[in-house]
Amino acid sequence: MELALRGSVLSFTDNPFLAPEEDCYVFEEDGLVVIENGKIKKVGHAPNLLPELSPETKITHYKSGLILPGFIDCHVHYPQIEVIGAYGKQLIDWLNKYTFVAEQKYKDLDYAKQAADLFLRELLQSGTTSASVFCTVAPQSVDAFFETSEKFGMLNLAGKVLMDRNAPEGLLDTAQTGYDQSKALIEKWHGRGRNLYSLTPRFAPTSTPEQMEMTGALWKEFPGTYLQSHISENKGEIEWVQELFPDCKDYLDVYDHFGQLGERAIYGHGIHLSEREFARLHETGTTLAHCPTSNLFLGSGLFSFEKAYDPARPVHAGLATDVGGGTSFSQLATMSEAYKVAQMRGSSLRAFQAFYMATRGAAEALYLTDRVGSIEPGLDADLTVIDLKATPLLEYRLSHAETLHDILFVLMILAEAQSIKATYVGGKCLMERVNGSVRFADPL
Ligand code: GUN
Ligand code: ZN
Question: Which atom of ligand 1 is nearest to the CA of 80?
């Protein structure tokens, strides 16, 4: 079955942090995206492509719509949906007071399934079609997540959190059980449907050297799997890591020592990294996930995209919400905060750069450009449609925008989730807003 979406179409082809921005995207004001069997078949100027369509093709015309690749969230915690917006603590206290309490509930499969379902609906409402997701230490939390993700047909990365010290008893595994359970989950879920497995040592302070060692070894045993963790988010955290691993040169060196750097390794935050650490991230192809709403909310610090994307040694950096440290599921809201973080450091993030970081840049960071992140023939038809007239303010403000950059910038500052008109996953419209209310596809 062929279908086609008509509207303005924007997709990135290159990195606007490193190349002139006008060379980095394709924009069709009156565009058409033709979809067949869940994949993008053609994209181009609508008046050129319309005569070629077969008469049965169902065409949806988004007259005030901007069609983008579905947003990709490079780092988020689904069990923290119940503690998003918890008052008053910085990282370690926040983990102990809120996060570690919530995560203990996810031994209960039904509880976990309910949260996973709500979480994925929040992503879809925000125009996000893929995410790199932390579950909890309980293997049931991973089963619940992947089962739900498979039902939705989404391409998501996720894994069981590994923690064998410095957390409540109810959240601890051991080096051996963590290894065994992760291995069984890889064998069960990696590559099933569109699911991808990510080994998930929470961060260096909550794993013993034995667990770190076994995790690095397991990652090597299963090429193509991912690894995700946290790095250099909070100054107190960094000092703690130095105390726990006194023989390592710095925070990154801990992960390096245990074979946890490389392509398909994704580290949240990376706010306070040294030049040595950036150079090593570059050398190994390791990714950073920039989480601005979280960094502001937890008072962690200001990420530098200039340091990450230094042309002398660029490091992949994708945009991420980090809910529940982060305060919104919307990648548009996240772009807005990324802009403000940069402003606080005296630099300005271009709208092209922000949209790149949430789409193609995120796919590059996750080594998934052959599947998602752009609107190109052969890629999965994961798309989001923004309604440029979603609110009277947006419509009025955009009537005063003169360039594509103006339009994108106004969207990232003002639009947020309510402007997402529709979200397509594998060519299927899973979420649409009709007169402002959200409708999910049956039988989700
Ligand atoms: N570092 C270790 N665990 C976490 C977490 O759950 N959230 C954030 N923001 N940082 C962490
Ligand atoms: Zn996180």
Answer: 6
Instruction: Spell out the domains of the chain, with CATH numbers in brackets.
Output: 2-70+374-440 (2.30.40.10), 71-365 (3.20.20.140)
User: For ligand 1, what atom is nearest to the CA of residue 325?
Assistant: 9
Q: How far is CA 25 from the centre of its chain?
A: 20
List all residues whose CB is within 6 A of at least one atom of ligand 1. Answer: 77, 91, 95, 99, 202-203, 230, 233, 294, 322, 325
State the pTM of this model: 0.98
Q: What is the pLDDT of residue 102?
A: 98
User: In this structure, how many other beta carbons lie within 10 angstroms of the beta carbon of residue 437?
Assistant: 7
Q: How far is the CA of 188 from the centre of ligand 1 (A)?
A: 26
> What is the layout of strands, in order, in the sheet containing 437-440?
39-45, 25-36, 2-12, 58-69, 383-387, 420-425, 428-434, 437-440
Measured in Å, how far apart are the chain's first and last C-alpha atoms?
Answer: 21
Q: For residue 89, what pLDDT is reported?
A: 84
Contacts of 135 (CB under 8 A, 6+ apart): 78, 79, 106, 112, 141, 142, 144, 145, 158, 159, 160, 161, 200
Cβ atoms 378, 337 nearer than 8 A? no
Nearest to 372 by CA among 72, 65, 73: 72
Structure-token pair, residue 27: 């924009």
Our mutation pick for probing the ligand 1 site, out of 104, 141, 160, 230, counting the most ligand atoms within 8 A of Cβ, is 230
How far, in Å, from the CA of 95 to the mean position of ligand 1? 7
Q: Which ligand is nearest to the CA of 298?
A: 1
DSSP 291: -
Beta carbons within 10 angstroms of residue 256's beta carbon: 21
Q: Which helix (H) or strand (E) holds 393?
A: helix 392-398
User: Which ligand gives the minimal distance to the CA of 236?
Assistant: 1
Which of 99, 106, 290, 298 is the pocket-test mutation for ligand 1 (most atoms within 8 Å of CB)?
A: 99
The number of beta carbons lying within 10 Å of the beta carbon of residue 347 is: 12
Instruction: Please tell me the distance between residue 153's alpha carbon and the centre of ligand 2 in angstroms.
Output: 24
Between the CA of 103 and the centroid of ligand 1 the distance, in Å, is 12
* Mean pLDDT per 10-residue interval, the chain, length 444 residues: 96 98 98 98 98 96 98 98 95 96 98 98 98 98 98 98 98 98 98 98 98 98 98 98 98 98 98 98 98 98 98 98 98 98 98 98 98 98 98 97 98 95 98 96 83
Ligand 1 probe mutation, 92, 171, 202, 228, most atoms within 8 A of CB: 202
Amino acid 416: pLDDT = 85
